[in-house]
């Protein structure tokens, strides 16, 4: 898909390891960088100057592969739960910049991905996906809007309903994955891909120990991530499920695009829609959002 021209007020694109990106700067000093490749947020810096997202030192920026870190957009299929390549195709496609500006105390960017010949070759659906990244204060707000347009495809095929799963696959930077806890997941139905079990999680907190790969379903309450450096509050709307992932030592060291030992400094807490795929008829749309806030009462 060719990139749409940015809106008049949009800042010039910057270069991130050879890929075009939009750089956001809010009046309070918070900053973010979003690659057009994948609509991929790769950096979020809070006003205190601290990077809050993990980005692998060996991330591949070749304009095809998914970047290891930041916030990959997973659409229209989560993981291997369908016929498409793992995690769908949105994270490997070129998105276009629709808007980027300062809005009061915030800075925001809007990026768009629409179906084209390449997506239709693997997934015969007409779609428009818009990602809005908004920063300001100690807060990151990411919205994913998915629309089923009413118009027929270019070849005249009438629009038909389709279903998708999705996630904002957020890689949080943590001091030490073995010394943190996630609160708010108790009493949720959970699929544990490491143990191959499905159960209701009764633990008051999740303390990742080794490889962790879990889907928690119908996670309605906000989560807290406490580590030595900060307390983050994560909330979501639209997305019903939460994924918590860390590859652990053996798989983390084996990932070709993860630097040595770096798996210790990341934890993915993903706002996801997995258990109940969303069905959209022509003209319908769906919105999911993940909001991450630094709790300033905590140390760090
Ligand atoms: O390596 P990727 O394709 O980016 O996937 C990374 C991870 O994503 C999700 O969190 C899944 O639950 C994991 O099973 C998967 O390993």
Automatic annotation (TrEMBL):
GO biological process: carbohydrate metabolic process
SUPFAM superfamilies assigned: Galactose mutarotase-like (SSF74650)
Catalytic activity: alpha-D-glucose 6-phosphate = beta-D-glucose 6-phosphate
Record-linked InterPro entries: Aldose_1/G6P_1-epimerase (IPR008183), G6P_1-epimerase (IPR025532), Gal_mutarotase_sf_dom (IPR011013), GH-type_carb-bd (IPR014718)
Active site: 169, 270
Family: Belongs to the glucose-6-phosphate 1-epimerase family.
Record's protein name: Putative glucose-6-phosphate 1-epimerase
């Amino acid at each position: 898909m060719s990139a749409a021209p940015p809106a008049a007020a949009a800042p010039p694109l910057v270069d991130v390891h050879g890929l075009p990106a939009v750089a956001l700067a809010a009046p309070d000093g918070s900053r973010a960088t979003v690659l057009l490749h994948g609509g991929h947020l790769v950096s979020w810096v809070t006003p205190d100057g601290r990077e809050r997202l993990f980005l692998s030192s060996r991330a591949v920026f070749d304009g095809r592969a998914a970047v290891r870190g930041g916030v990959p957009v997973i659409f229209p299929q989560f993981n291997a739960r369908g016929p498409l390549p793992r995690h769908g195709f949105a994270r490997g496609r070129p998105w276009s910049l629709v808007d980027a500006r300062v809005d009061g105390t915030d800075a925001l960017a809007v990026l768009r991905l629409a179906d084209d010949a390449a997506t239709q070759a693997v997934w015969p659906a007409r779609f428009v996906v818009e990602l809005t990244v908004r920063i300001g204060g100690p807060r990151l707000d990411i919205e994913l809007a998915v629309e089923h347009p009413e118009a027929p495809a270019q070849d005249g095929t009438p629009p038909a309903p389709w279903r998708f799963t999705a996630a904002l696959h957020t890689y949080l930077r943590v001091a030490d994955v073995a010394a943190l806890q996630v609160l708010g997941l108790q009493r949720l139905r959970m699929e544990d891909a490491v143990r191959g079990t499905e159960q209701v999680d009764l633990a008051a907190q999740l303390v990742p120990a080794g490889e962790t790969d879990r889907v928690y379903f119908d996670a309605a309450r906000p989560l807290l991530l406490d580590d030595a450096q900060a307390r983050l509050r994560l909330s979501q709307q639209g997305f019903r499920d939460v994924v918590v992932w860390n590859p652990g030592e053996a798989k983390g060291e084996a990932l070709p695009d993860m630097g040595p030992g770096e798996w210790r400094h990341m934890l993915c807490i993903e706002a996801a829609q997995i258990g109940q795929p969303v069905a959209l008829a022509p003209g319908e749309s769906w919105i999911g959002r993940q909001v991450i806030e630094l709790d300033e009462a905590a140390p760090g």
